[in-house]
Write a structure and sequence with these properties.
This protein is an alpha+beta fold. Helix content is 46%, strand content 18%.
């Protein structure tokens, strides 16, 4: 009985090791190539958009005061959601590389923006976020110094953080 449990544990460990190696190879391949990402938007309603991305449908809507039906999150909420999703992946990847376990991670993101410019009622301020604040609440045994290095590595490597924090050229064409 003990041999059978030990054999199963070794098999499971071998599977996990192979999975980890495959994941590292895949992540290294992504690091070596430019990856083209695209989405397609169906914009039949003035405030609701149906997006197709990687075979998934994402619905974006606005609250009723902004002409929407409030059936889904709005674009600026999805921006923060995408930020949280990307940070989650990079946080776990970097923690694994640094040799500590994230038992759980909560990410809270909030930002301040003035919708006046988007709504055309004032051109005094920019349309986008004035500031975005992120709180990580990691459940881990890693010490504070390790976590400081972890946060630095995560913010340096997160593609969404980079896209928001730095000027990314946006080219718009009309067909």
């Amino acid at each position: 009985m003990k041999k059978r449990v030990l054999t199963k544990a070794k098999s499971l460990l071998a599977i996990l090791l192979v999975f980890s190696l495959v994941f590292l190879c895949i992540s290294k391949n992504y690091a070596q190539e430019t990856m083209k990402v695209n989405v397609k938007a169906d914009c039949r309603h003035p405030a609701r958009t149906v997006i197709e991305a990687s075979g998934f449908k994402i619905i974006i809507d606005e609250p009723a005061p902004y002409g929407g039906t409030n059936l889904a999150a709005n674009p600026v909420e999805y921006l923060l959601a995408a930020f949280a999703g990307c940070l989650n992946v990079i946080c776990h990847l970097v923690a694994q590389e640094m040799g500590f376990e994230l038992k759980n991670l909560e990410i809270e993101i909030e930002g301040d923006l003035n919708p006046s410019k988007a709504m055309g009622t004032s051109m005094a301020e920019r349309a986008g976020y004035k500031e975005i604040r992120i709180k990580f609440k990691p459940d881990t045994d890693a010490d504070k110094e390790t976590l400081k290095k972890w946060v630095e590595a995560v913010t340096d490597r997160c593609p969404v953080h980079d896209s928001i924090s730095n000027a990314t050229p946006v080219k718009i064409s009309l067909e």
